[in-house]
Amino acid sequence: MKGNPVVRCICIVSLAALTCAASARDLDQDEARDLRLSGVILPLDQLMRAAMERYPGATLLEAELEEEDDVFVYEVELLTREGVVRELELDAHDGKILKDEVDD
To answer: Any idea where the PepSY domain is (predicted)?
Structure first.
């Protein structure tokens, strides 16, 4: 492949980002309810225990259930007592914290 190496790099990075974005699917409330009732995922309040233990007194701002590579994940935003917004990813099956970072 000929051409400017910078342009090639930008194209490759852009394609990789699109591929990653395409692998996640947001689930609606009916799908979440069905998965919870069938025992595939735990109730959100039960999943939130580890996050709230890590950030006592935090306020839940947002929670979305997503399917990423056949794994159900809750993406959660918390506002800590210190005023910092944290973005966490929780495995919806067992509550394990998969990601914890400051939200930009």
So the answer is: 42-101
